[in-house]
Amino acid sequence: MTYKAIALNPENPLQFIVLHKPIPYPRGYDLLVEVKAVSVNPIDTKIRQNAKKNGLHKPRVLGWDASGIVLSIGSLVRNFKPGDTVFYAGDITRPGSNATHQLVDSRITGYKPKKLNWAQAAALPLTALTAWEGLFDRLHLNNNDVNKKLLIIGGAGGVGSLAIPFAKLCSTVEVIATASREKSIQWCINRGANIVINHTKMPESLTRYHIDQIDYIFCLNNIDEHWPDMCKLISPQGKICTIVENDAPLSFEEIKRKSVSLHFEFMYTRSLFHTPDLSRQGKILNHISQMIDQGKITTSLKKELYGLNIDTLSKAHELVLEGHMCGKAVIVY
Questions:
Q1: Last-in-domain residue among 264, 293, 324
Q2: Most buried among 51, 61, 73, 154, using CB within 10 Å?
Q3: 175 plus 70 within the same structural domain
């Protein structure tokens, strides 16, 4: 038996090609999943754009955000069985979910929320894990943060769309998000932001609310552009977390004088290095799944496309590259 996958063409990585490969057999902690939907993230477009420079020698299947049905399990799996419905972000060292079937480690997999359909569930794992780890594993937000303020730079994107409600529900910080268009401003408000400001004039905008210091900053885009304002706004002994890398050298003089801690969040660290706490990702996804079924969190799905084919996947990549969409784009198979 074979399965279908859409992969990068090694002869021209900006093109996709269709593959038909034998269905793999799950071993160890693996689940064999029949994929029902996949969302497209900036990491997909970044890997595609850099594939030629990084030397792509064979077809590569992208896609690390999916929902589906467990077909079979490896010998070490104890928490899933065939027929279970799951969602996950996967592992960038393995073939992705732009395919009808995929192997994924059960320890980084969660039970799909019962209230959500395939598309709504597939919109969540990567951004939900990134948001949760950034807020609670890196910045260490908690319920003792009364009168403290969190600034989320890029509140309307996939990660920001979940970071806002996570911070509101699981800590006591005041949530400030940045957005520039009327649609994205309203999106942030609807997700639970207390204040929404323009990212181009952050200090000036915050002055109107009598705010001149921020305790926590979660930077979700363009750290080079925002770094001077971040250094100015962060409070002494405050914390900064970023999910984006800088293109130019950053000056640390001001945050050094303030004893500010700087954290990086890369959601794939645990699976990439097989850290001892690898299974934490599965636990986070299950916790988020429960929150969704309890009506506390809603999906960040914004756009649905249909069919596992080259045209649909190309369109989804275009939507992400445009950078104007609130929430997530998902392909339903």
A1: 264
A2: 154
A3: no
> Do 94 and 152 fall within a single domain?
no
In the chain, which residues have pLDDT < 70? none
Helix axes 182-191, 158-170, angle to 10 degrees: 30
- How many structural domains compose the chain? 2
Residue 72, C-beta contacts closer than 8 angstroms, at least 6 positions apart: 25, 26, 31, 32, 82
What pTM does this model have? Answer: 0.95
Closest C-alpha among 135, 31, 106 to residue 278: 106
Contact 331, 37 (CB under 8 A): yes
Domain of residue 238: give its range: 128-264
Any idea what the Cα angle at residue 112 is, between residues 106 and 114, rounded to 5°?
150
Query: At CA 30, angle to CA 300 and CA 293, rounded to 5?
Result: 30
Give CA–CA dist 182/150, Å, rounded: 21
Q: Are residues 15 and 109 in the same domain?
A: yes
pLDDT of the residue at 306: 97
Q: What is the pLDDT of residues 107-130, one digit of tens each?
A: 999 999 999 999 999 999 999 999
Write out pLDDT tens, residues 148-159: 999 999 999 889
- Cα 152 to Cα 39, 141, 203, 208, 271: the distances in Å are 22, 13, 14, 18, 26
| pLDDT value, residue 51 | 87
At 44 the pLDDT is: 94
